[in-house]
Design goal:
Number of helices: 6
Helix content: 25-40%
Largest sheet: 6 strands, antiparallel
Distance between the termini: 46 Å
Number of strands: 9
Oligomer: single chain
Strand content: 35-45%
Radius of gyration: 21 Å
Shape: globular
Structural class: alpha+beta
Length: 222
């Protein structure tokens, strides 16, 4: 994890300039900064004030999770992947934990808990840790990461490594709590179609349909 963290691109702030075509002149925009990766990609346009925007390096995020895992002195193993968007403005990672982090809310339904991490430099993405695991979400066998707890911070605050420790602690020490939540969720039922459709919308699946509400109602009828 530490080796991967060192390979991730770092970000830098630079000035933003506006062009006056009439006067053919350039002038610095004092209240805005541009954010560039060290590989030459422009990834964001943000406030020039540290009171409103702080860069959170992708490598620091992964390094913070690695240090939090190290606190357990080898009691847990991790495996995962990191993805940087083609434009470089967004980073996502999924880290699976192995050890005392496996739960079984239903007999035979073993789930390895882990973290899903998202951040970015565009000015719109903060830093978010989702605690959860890969679960079967459809009778056709489709799997998806289901979050049961989350921690997040905005770019208005400097990077907080303590939040990575909280997230990792929640995976390792909060397994019983997550297992209890999933057991309780088994007994919950939607009250009506509207409630079920709202849950589907929250997953983001509606983006794949031209008329999602009608499609979901037809699916529920079936």
């Amino acid at each position: 994890m530490f080796e991967t963290a060192e390979t991730l691109p770092e970000a830098e702030r630079h000035s933003v300039y506006g062009h006056n075509e009439i006067e053919d002149d350039w002038e610095e925009i004092q209240w805005r900064d541009s954010v560039w990766l060290d590989d030459g990609r422009l990834v964001g346009d943000v406030s020039a004030s540290d009171d409103w925007y702080n860069i959170i390096e992708y490598g620091d995020i992964l390094d913070g999770v690695g240090r939090a895992v190290d606190q357990y002195d080898g009691a847990i193993d991790v495996e995962g992947e990191v993805t940087i968007s083609a434009s470089g403005h967004k980073m996502s990672s999924r880290i699976d934990f192995y050890g005392d982090t496996t739960i079984e809310p239903v007999s035979g339904d073993e789930i390895n808990l882990g973290l899903k991490i998202r951040s970015g430099h565009s000015g719109y993405h903060g830093l978010k840790y989702d605690v959860g695991g890969m679960r079967q979400v459809c009778s056709n066998g489709m799997m998806a990461f289901v979050s049961d707890m989350e921690f997040e911070q905005t770019h208005q605050d400097p990077y907080n490594p303590g939040m990575a420790r909280q997230a990792v602690d929640s995976v390792v020490e909060g397994a019983d709590e997550v297992e209890d939540r999933l057991e309780q969720a088994r007994d919950r039922r939607f009250q009506n179609y509207d409630e079920a459709i709202l849950v589907l919308m929250e997953t983001g699946i509606d983006q794949y349909f031209e008329e999602p509400v009608d499609t979901f109602r037809d699916a529920l009828d079936a």
